[in-house]
Amino acid sequence: MSDTQDLRVAVLGVGVMGADHVDRINRRISGARVTVISDASPERAAQVGATARDAQLVADPFEAIAVEDVDAVLLATPSAVHAEQVLACLHAGKPVLCEKPLATDAEGALEIVRREAELGRRLVQVGFMRRFDHEHERLKSLIDTGDLGQPLMMHCAHRNPAVSPRCDSAAVITNSVVHEIDATRFLLGEEIMAITVLRPTPSSHAAEGLQDPQLVILETETGRMVDIEVFVNAGVGYEVRTEVVGERGSAMIGLDVGLVRRTEPGSWGGQITPGFRERFGQAYDSEVQRWVDAIHAGGRSGDCVDGPGSWDGYAAAAVCAAGIRSLETWDRIEVDMVPRSIIGRSGSAGAAPDQPE
Amino acid sequence: MSDTQDLRVAVLGVGVMGADHVDRINRRISGARVTVISDASPERAAQVGATARDAQLVADPFEAIAVEDVDAVLLATPSAVHAEQVLACLHAGKPVLCEKPLATDAEGALEIVRREAELGRRLVQVGFMRRFDHEHERLKSLIDTGDLGQPLMMHCAHRNPAVSPRCDSAAVITNSVVHEIDATRFLLGEEIMAITVLRPTPSSHAAEGLQDPQLVILETETGRMVDIEVFVNAGVGYEVRTEVVGERGSAMIGLDVGLVRRTEPGSWGGQITPGFRERFGQAYDSEVQRWVDAIHAGGRSGDCVDGPGSWDGYAAAAVCAAGIRSLETWDRIEVDMVPRSIIGRSGSAGAAPDQPE
Amino acid sequence: MSDTQDLRVAVLGVGVMGADHVDRINRRISGARVTVISDASPERAAQVGATARDAQLVADPFEAIAVEDVDAVLLATPSAVHAEQVLACLHAGKPVLCEKPLATDAEGALEIVRREAELGRRLVQVGFMRRFDHEHERLKSLIDTGDLGQPLMMHCAHRNPAVSPRCDSAAVITNSVVHEIDATRFLLGEEIMAITVLRPTPSSHAAEGLQDPQLVILETETGRMVDIEVFVNAGVGYEVRTEVVGERGSAMIGLDVGLVRRTEPGSWGGQITPGFRERFGQAYDSEVQRWVDAIHAGGRSGDCVDGPGSWDGYAAAAVCAAGIRSLETWDRIEVDMVPRSIIGRSGSAGAAPDQPE
Amino acid sequence: MSDTQDLRVAVLGVGVMGADHVDRINRRISGARVTVISDASPERAAQVGATARDAQLVADPFEAIAVEDVDAVLLATPSAVHAEQVLACLHAGKPVLCEKPLATDAEGALEIVRREAELGRRLVQVGFMRRFDHEHERLKSLIDTGDLGQPLMMHCAHRNPAVSPRCDSAAVITNSVVHEIDATRFLLGEEIMAITVLRPTPSSHAAEGLQDPQLVILETETGRMVDIEVFVNAGVGYEVRTEVVGERGSAMIGLDVGLVRRTEPGSWGGQITPGFRERFGQAYDSEVQRWVDAIHAGGRSGDCVDGPGSWDGYAAAAVCAAGIRSLETWDRIEVDMVPRSIIGRSGSAGAAPDQPE
Question: Residue ranges of the Gfo/Idh/MocA-like oxidoreductase C-terminal domain (chains A, B, C, D) (predicted)?
Fold first, then answer.
């Protein structure tokens, strides 16, 4: 495709997240437009389609992937269908940005890693948007320049205001903790070797039987430790805080959410971001813009990824699987992953986790 | 022009600011591309043009404005030529986004206000980018909802790291304080009636004869007061802080610049933004995206402004002129402005300062 | 007096402030106890006296000063009687800690300076307690070590939650701004040369006719400038903030009042100190402990002051007098002070303002 | 003893901590003075004694306890001798403030609890000074008033700048973590049921073989969880941070240590407290003042404790013992404690941990 022509994107799944992406691509991203919209609900597809004049509606997701004037695919469909849709994109040779998770189990994710490696070019990007957040980028840079010394520990808090009553204890790990799992791999640059999920007194805001909050401990290959407080019904707002503690100092991001410091009778303070879209809006924009740019740059035969790839999706899935077993058994569980070396060149080469390139 | 076709923009003046705008429009803004570049320096024009494949170089700025496949003009030329180039845009009926100042004197700005009023549609937007900064937007919203009660005072600090040795004391007002002048009008929603420029002990970092810092007092129509500390050679980084003090509380923005809070031996803290591009990058992007969207929406006969207009440019010029006299006379100077009512419908109608619409 | 024997203190005036001092001396200060209490109201004297078992009540303040087993006097009587009571202490050769102001006019204060100079030893300390506040001490130290470079400006905010409806516009200066006047002299180490009192839109919380808030500009001998926002009916709590802006950086104290940073639904923040006793409790304790220690150290013939002295009380009174004229005339007023050199050794020697020694 | 007479205190052990206490009692505490000093080193005793004119030196600690004009004892001797010295105080019927730990093992501490219970009055206070820190008091109050909702988790960071090379991994628990153990019991008001000591990658600043940092997990009776990062060689300064996360919000203390927020080229921030004396000076002063007041109030037959008592010392010792086993075994260890009900009235009655009364 020509560099001066807009990238034509099919967006599959236009619930909250997918509708956001349609709006983002059509109104804020340079060099791309949405040409196909697909959703299991024809009403929802029509409603979002009405905001995107150039887009045609295609009911079947696999047909949508195959449409000729689609250059790339953005997947915001339900988790359960991610793996097969990503494989269809690979089969069609089309770049895909898949919202997390890449697959609901480690095996499904590994299969994608293998197929992409066989193709010999990187086409699969996974939506771990925190890697594009300016705060996370700065924290990463402090670590990489050695300003903090060798990192020894990380402390994370991840507080969602509220979730659907259907959320179960395992979903807390696969939907929420998965972000800290990827952030740990991104920031520390190594794989996670073991996970322990602890069960503090549950909040009375949580549905009966839901373990909320959870306290998760990760251990990396070289023995660094990460503790994660995760709430899905914190009730307070959306707070994501990460502190890296190194040999020469520590650094924290996400402490004060809110731009304005104000006083009122008796108190000072500010506003907590209500949700993830307000907190990570900039990160989503950067993620999609850089993905679009990477596809323009990669062209018809090069790599089309700028960010976390299929291997990162696989690693996250493997750690989540171990986390769910820890939740069930109350034990520390070691993570079961294939060595990265057995995968060929792409999928994402090298021993280290994928980095934005 | 069609809504689905990219807006074709001529960028006049591609120094630091203009080159930024070229990059912004071509790489981050949806629905626009740069088709013409013009600069007094052919080398600079060629250099920036090389990064913008679709753009042709046109040496003469007035020819550039007139090029047929130019839908709109972004002016980042030297201040002295702004007024005549804006008038040329009006003459051609083309929307223009003019970096501040609109004109170097109040008379020049008033002439633009009158011409635009005669045209009957708003085509002139002025580059007071702070109005698009999320922090300023939030502060404005706190005032407008009445959460702070009636605003009584504002305290501003505006610290530039360093300026060219050619900067003189009057330029401190027209280049730097002008932003607080517009922010005052934007936040408080009324005109400035008087200005006093005080002269504290000059910094030894300032060139001989340069009054740096300055302490400026503004008084609004209803008697609110604003104090402004302005440095052009603060040496520390780029800090812009604004506090509004109301009857029911106060609110401050810009206190902690820097995303990461870190510790190192003996101290905690963070990084100060090095310059205005890092501090206001988001605001510039929003400003240009909303300008582009406004032109798409306005079409060939509607208003093409979303933000501060020609009247705001005139008001700022009038206050700056009074400020320069205060600097010379050491006195409090009342601002000399025509009543807004004598201007016709556009230019920007109504008694209040222009607001983003 | 012996170093191992408790200093016997007469407290004159036991309203809110004096009663606090009685409690402080008897319960938290080492090496002193209250032996005499005097107040114009016999009921109030009896009530406070009941909390201080060792103290006798003496109705007449001059008799109280003269009581034989009184080693030192703490004055918390109404401002109008300060000067004559301080003179009586000097006459009796007894050290005195006088709550501000030292006198209600500059002439009265100057008379005290002269009398003390004749005595040849320093016996008069004035209750500018901010000099003993750890935050002010640290700010002073940053200035004195040169870490901020040459100070060029100061920005102050002084917000009282509410005052008696009898408070008039001049009292805003003599009771509230007087603290910033002393803090300026303490921090910058030079005299104030001119004062301008500006009148922003009054708050609707202020009584009819009361100019509240006020915006005060001080100019020092070397041309540094200080702006002071002062509220006596801010309604929010007690906030005292000071920022010193120097050639190499700035430093601010008093920004976040409140020890705990907390979140609640939608917001983060903390508590604002309700009043001056909570904010400056540590400073009052340190002030009195150091005064007691100074008297133990000074003995019967040495200096008995550790903190601001009579000259500081005089300087503050002179600046306040000019401030009240500025309030009346709407003009900038130069401060009228005798040169310090015409006063003899004590009163407090040297050209610089008194410093804690 | 009479209420108006100074409490006569023997200070045993005048190393850094004990010498501080001598100075504190003689110079800042109302109603007490040091009359006896004892130390294993005659030189050190003489040196500190020289600063305390009224004090006699008594070499033998048990003789020092027995001296007739000693009303109360403050123990700052090495940990190994605490238990027997506290028992001697109980035997002599003299109130004692014992620096932590109360005893080096749980059995020794339990013996003290039993003896005190037999006496029928509370004479033993333990030096967990954090309970007297204004920040901890405010956090406690937020919990007790229900403002945070039910507390579910606590996150602690405890970073010491550096320790003696002789410090071993178990001492990290008994000297440092012991403060978080007491703070957990104080803040949450219940006993700790289990402890797990995890071993992150050690810092290169730590001596060979020292597990530094450690990551400790506490579980309370009702299932709340506390994670504690502890460093003894953090190198950065002294940081103590505690966050309580409740069902309705969270609260954090100790984040910004340092009174002044300053800027310098490129950065903003402040100073980290260099050590525990700067951080907790106010807490030590309050602790000793309240202990002295309690003894004045208790007189010859009442309770002489205002703060953590012998049961708190026992509970801390029991949790530390379990922690050391966890460190050795890499396992989660349940805490072995006698039920509080089997102890009689004193020792400290009731099922809840001792609270300041």
Answer: 140-329
